[in-house]
Design a protein that fits this description.
This is Cellulase family glycosylhydrolase. It comes from Streptomyces luteireticuli. The chain has 411 residues and is α/β, with parallel strands linked by helices. It folds into 2 domains: 4-333, Glycosidases (TIM Barrel, Alpha-Beta Barrel); 344-410, no CATH class. It is 35% helix and 13% strand. The protein contains 14 helices and 12 strands.
């Protein structure tokens, strides 16, 4: 199957606040822009407090508007993936009043909240279940950021509780829309922070596929520079890293977010960064697809965004395609050969497989990260294998691995 190419849909008018003043003609115009690049899907973001303002109220009109949006996408040849619990977007949190202040309840452990979330996700999935262009639900956009530091008011949870919550959300989606690709998505603390309750095992073992979000402002670009090999390889690294924790060697991986954030990637280098990143990640077996962040620049009339968030789009506010948009479209149009198996694997030991307490070694500057990047920049195409599975009968053969090396041997 060929790799899918799409974009995270950021409405040109009103950003995600467009749900408050929903204009289907504006949505159609935005989707016309996206379709003009030859992309095949969009990831869309209902705002949780707009759709479920009370624990027992899911607004029918909001759900109807989501279906209208999805059908408008389909009319332009775009499949639709829906993120449910928004949750968190571009530094802003969107939580309904029934989980905050006087009604403060834990988002991951309170029984009433869990059942309300599951009911909400099921409502959205069920509304789209008969649409052939509906790809599936993502439980939420980096919802794991609510679970610990550095969030200013975290909902504390342990790894067992985090896994239980994610499984319950996926079960609700599966029951409402069977056979679709339902999953959950974390920001990279799940891979790089040994104290974070959402772990690589959760990402790679719960849901229909593994999602990774690649942002090089996490220390990669600061350490290696905007044109450093590691910066262009970061997305591929996360894809390969995720496979080490997967129990199914054929489990697909979705590069669900990747973008060129200034000033870490200067605007004049954004197109080159995009091409390099995409070509590197297309060299990974099992890649389901790539969804660029994002479709349209944010209107600067909207206040208080971090500066880097305003100009991440493939299109300007004036609907003009940017060089980075042309670069993404160009790679999407190319007919590239399927990725070959990776014959060399770098062994990783992050401690206990489920909790992975030694995850900082996987982060930019960590010994494992730097060793993998050294191998990759030398052309070795390293896979990643858990130390606990190196001796497991058939595991290396099943992944096509013929040679294993250690961090100590590389560094």
């Amino acid at each position: 199957m060929s790799v899918r190419f799409g974009v995270n849909y950021t409405p040109r008018q009103g950003w995600f606040h467009h749900w408050l003043d929903f204009d289907l003609d504006e949505v159609r115009a935005d989707f016309d822009d996206i379709a003009s690049l030859g992309l095949d899907h969009v990831r869309v973001f209902p705002l949780w407090p707009v759709f479920q303002p009370n624990r027992t109220l899911i607004r029918p009109r909001a759900v109807e508007q989501l279906v209208l949006l999805a059908d408008a996408a389909a009319e332009r040849g775009l499949d639709v993936a829906v993120d449910g619990l928004q949750g968190h977007l571009s530094s802003f949190d969107f939580l309904p009043s029934w989980v905050t202040t006087w009604h403060r309840r834990n988002l991951f452990t309170d029984p009433d909240v869990i059942e309300a979330q599951a009911r909400y996700l099921a409502e959205l999935a069920g509304a789209l279940a008969e649409r052939p262009h509906f790809l599936g639900m993502t439980v939420g956009n980096e919802f794991n950021q609510f679970s610990g530091d550095p969030h200013p008011d975290p909902d504390r949870v342990d790894a067992r509780e985090a896994g239980s919550w994610a499984r319950r959300m996926i079960e609700a989606c599966d029951a409402a829309a069977p056979g679709r690709a339902h999953l959950h998505a974390s920001y990279d603390a799940a891979w790089y922070d040994g104290t974070h309750p959402f772990t690589p095992a959760h990402a790679a073992r719960i849901g229909a596929m593994t999602a990774v979000h690649s942002w090089v402002f996490n220390g990669t670009a600061q350490r290696h520079g905007s044109d450093g090999a590691a910066t262009g390889l970061h997305a591929a690294y996360l894809v390969e890293l995720s496979k080490a924790w997967a129990t199914d060697p054929a489990r697909p991986v979705w590069l669900q977010e990747v973008g060129a954030p200034a000033p870490f990637v200067p605007p004049e280098r954004a197109a080159s960064f995009a091409r390099t990143t995409l070509l590197n990640v297309l060299d990974c077996e099992g890649l389901w697809g790539v969804t660029w962040w994002c479709s349209h620049d944010v209107d600067r009339a909207l206040a208080d965004f971090p500066e880097l968030e305003y100009e991440l789009g493939l299109f300007t506010q004036g609907r003009k395609v940017k060089p980075v948009g042309e670069a993404v479209a160009g790679v999407a149009r190319d007919s590239l050969p399927a990725a070959a198996p990776r014959r060399t694997a770098l062994v990783v030991d992050a401690g206990d497989v489920v909790s992975a307490p030694l995850r900082p070694m996987l982060a930019p500057g960590g010994a494992y990260f730097e060793a993998w990047m050294r191998l990759a920049s030398d052309g070795a195409r390293p896979a990643v294998v858990l130390a606990q599975r190196v001796g497991e009968a058939g595991h290396l053969v099943g992944r096509g691995v013929e040679e294993v090396v250690t961090v100590e041997q590389v560094l």
